[in-house]
Each structure stands twice: as structure tokens, then as C-alpha cells.
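Journal club prep, notes for RB
We'll compare a predicted complex against what the paper describes. Inputs for the glycine case:
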Amino acid sequence: MNVLIIASGGREHALAWKLRQGADVDTVYCAPGNPNMTGIEPVAIEEMNALADFAIRHDVRLTVVGPEAPLCDGIVDVFREKSLPIFGPTKEAAQLEGSKTFAKEFMVRHAIPTAAYRKCLSADDARDCVREFGPPVVVKADGLAAGKGVTVAQTIEEADQAVDECLSGRFGEAGQIVVVEECLVGEEASILAFTDGKTIIPLASSQDHKRIGEGDTGPNTGGMGAYSPAPVVTHELWNTIQSDVLERFRKGCNRDGLDYRGVIYAGIMVTPNGPKVLEFNVRFGDPETQAVLMRLESDLAQAMIATVEGRLDSVTLDWSPEPAVCVVMASGGYPGKYEKGHVITGLSEAETKGAVVFHAGTARKNNDVVTAGGRVLGVTAKGRDLQQALNRVYEAVDCIDWKDAYHRRDIAHRALARM
Ligand code: AMP
Ligand code: GLY
């Protein structure tokens, strides 16, 4: 069986790594792919119809989409039209990530716990809302803004500025509607689940580290590391999330006629009043996926095909009890300006330390592996306990170097503090 993965970041490399272990998997194609990802065949195509034609020509039995943009653009609809099996929600259902108001209205309609909010269509309206909620308050651009559309404002001035930024056109169409939200306080966790509409099966819990600096300080990034499981999700909380978030999500999709056969990612804030959904993503998390998939013992390809074919009730997902940690190594300066093209050393040595090195932003130059993005590598390892996983992962990280390489030394600090 041939598999096609769309996009080529660290999350996609982890998906490729796990899918390749599938009993029936022959070739894993990755579009556009990265020649440093061992075991994948890069495919230099981006356009949706051309990808579907590629899938037909190469007998692809499963296509998996990494990022949200192609899902929101309707790649699932294009593939299904041609009877090609693809893992992900339709364009209509992808609005759960593509539009904050769509997601909020969905949550309210189906009694999924979330922060109080107002949809605002003008600056005056949004400024009034900001004052009604009072600081701290959260201001969000409605549409996809590459992870930059959310401001947790500590003051009215900061919130006003965020409103102006949204409406100034900085986020294009995405910012023309503004969501003003109650600010929730607590610890965050990421819960992913597979659903085919009839069944919903959670994956192992995880937590990511969005800020650039140690102690979760400084600007937001795409994610500087993650670990699984997240001990903030206690047994009781897990049960509440299953019933009040995941099951209501599944039933809500059915009631609203949304065709959802893929993975749903619920970003959860654990508040004193129980878990509340901060956001839905209609795809795997990055870098949560790197840590979560390292613990998956079941055949991922089989589980995904069952999801696409509506047979998820026949699947059980088995997890290693061993925790996993992913540390992201980034280019110095990220998430601001950074240089590219620096030669990376120590990759093979790192792999001898019991870690897997997932490539996110790398390229090949002559015979060297060089940096080619902000987030460059996701070094990931498992251990009999969290401390051993951390020792392994940082031992591997310490083998790797390039000019101005940066990583955080405190991944999983919240889990350690609970021990
Ligand atoms: P979102 O893209 O909606 O998940 O927002 C990105 C990040 O902003 C979340 O992971 C939270 O850290 C933070 N955030 C979003 N909404 C809220 C909220 N209502 N209260 C507090 N923090 C929030
Ligand atoms: N790690 C957060 C995300 O993938 O959106």
C-alpha cells in the first residue's frame, strides 16, 4: 500500500516515520517532502488537482494532510470527488479551525465548554466588548493568521491595539471579523482524537511549549517542544474531556451534517471550573505529534484507513506507558529574523543516543544537511520515566550543532514540577 503525506515539517516527518512501520505500507510519498527525511519519496507538487492525479497514478491508498491550509482550501473534497481515500475533514468542517466564530458557534450550539465571547464586526463594537469583559481579555482575528491572530491582552490599551491590528488588514480577510473573549486562566493540554463520525477515539494526551523562552516567556512560536502524557490531565479530567468535549464534538458534527473523518485537536485550558476548549484544530499538532506518535504501538496506517472508511469502531490504539519528549532545535533569532544555510553537524551521533531526529526546516547542500527554516529539528525520545526520556533527548540534542542553534532546556517542566 502506498501512502501520500501533504507538507513536510516535523509533524509530517513523524507521521511518515510512524506510517512506514505499518505492516502493509510500501512507499511513503511526501509532497513536497524533504530529502533529509529518511524513508520518504519527495514529490514536487503542491496544487490539489495535480496531487490527486499523482495519487491515482501511484496507486496511493491513503493520503494524510499535515497542515490546516490545504484542508481549509478543500483538498479533502477534491480527493473524495475522485474516490481517493483521504484522512481529514471536508472544507465545510475545516471551518472549525478556519473560522473562530464558526468554531465558537459550534461549541455553544453543542454545549462544549469554552470561554465566553462576542463576535465583533467593527472597531467600535470590538472596543466596547473589550471594556465589557475588562482586562485581561483575549482578542482574536476570525480567520487563519498563521498562529499570529491571537492576543492575550493584559490592558485595555493592548486589547485596543490588537483590535486595530486585526481590522487594519494585517491578517487580510482573516482579520475582518474580531472575536473578543474572556481570558481563561489555568494550564493547557492538547487532546487529539480520531473520529469517523460514528466513533471517536482519543490519542494520548500531550502538552506543548509555545513560547520561545525558558519558563514559557517571550514571543509565541510554532512550538518549542512537547511531551506526552500531560499529567495535568488526571483520570477524572480525562473522563470529563471524553464526555463533554469529544463526544459532544462528534454528535455536533453529525447534527450539523459535517463530514469529519480525520483527527480533531482540542486545545484545552484546565480551569478551576473544569476543562474549556480554547480552540479546535482540524489536524495534528506540531510538535505534539512527534511526542505522541513515539508512544503509539498500534498500526497508524490501519487506524487511519479505518477512520476514512468509517470502521473506527474496529480499532483500538495501544500506547507505550513510557513518556516521550520532543525538543525543537531552532535557528537563532526565531521567531524573528534568522539566517539559513548553516551546516548541521552531529545528526548521526544523536541517533545513537536513542532519539529520533525529525526534520522540520532543513535542506541539502552538496553533501551537507543545512538549516532552511525557523524550526529546524524535532529531537524526540522515550524513556522508562520522564527523567530518562529527558536525559536521552538532551544527550541527543547536545550532539547536534550549527551556527546560532537555539533550544529550550526546560521542556516538560510543568510535568516535572508535579512529580
Ligand atoms: P488559539 O489559536 O485560539 O488556540 O490561541 C492561541 C493561544 O492563545 C492558546 O494556546 C492560549 O495560550 C491562548 N488563548 C487563546 N484563547 C484564550 C483564552 N480565552 N484565555 C486565555 N488564553 C487564551
Ligand atoms: N502545537 C500547536 C499547534 O499545532 O497548533
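Talking point for the session: The chain has four domains: 2-90, 122-176, 187-314, 324-418.
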